[in-house]
Amino acid sequence: MSENIIGVPQRRIDGGKKVSGQARYAADHPMGKMLYAYGVYSIIANGRVVAVKDQQAKAMPGVVDIFHHGNFPALHRTPNTKLSFAKMLSASKADEHRLPFEDDRVYYPGQFVALVVAESFEQART
User: d(Cα 14, Cα 19) in Å, to the nearest integer?
Assistant: First the structure.
């Protein structure tokens, strides 16, 4: 049964549109009044965020707000789930149990420390 599928080229319904650039993806459908966010990440491995000087960034065209530990409402912590030893060995930032903007501590480079919200992705990233 599987010999008719595995290893045999299959004709894709959307193939022609994809290779010609005519295929439409979710990002190709504009949403009215949508906001975009861009994360700001730590460049140090261990420390504290002692101040967030965001006045100049907030004055940039299109920037709606900048969130960080000092102005973000506390999030509700859910009970920790038990981790297996194998899970702990393979843990990464995606498995982090800390809540966003939980405190002013920086534990690793690349830690999420702020979020810029703007009217366009380019404005949020700038």
Answer: 9
Q: Which CATH architecture has domain 30-75+100-126?
A: Alpha-Beta Complex (3.90)
Ranges assigned E (strand) in the chain: 36-41, 47-48, 63-68, 105-106, 112-118
Residue 35: closest CA among 67, 69, 75, 78: 67
**Sequence ranges of the domains in the chain:** 30-75+100-126
Distances (CA, A) of 115 to 26, 50, 83: 23, 17, 29
What residue has token string 């843990």?
A: 91
- Structural contact between residues 73 and 100, judged by C-beta atoms closer than 8 angstroms: no
d(CA 111, CA 93) in angstroms, rounded, equals 8
The answer to whether 64 touches 116, Cβ cutoff 8 Å, is: no
| pLDDT tens, the chain, 126 aa long | 566 778 888 888 999 999 999 999 988 888 888 999 999 999 999 999 999 999 999 999 999 999 999 998 877 666 665 555 565 555 555 566 778 888 999 999 999 899 999 999 999 998
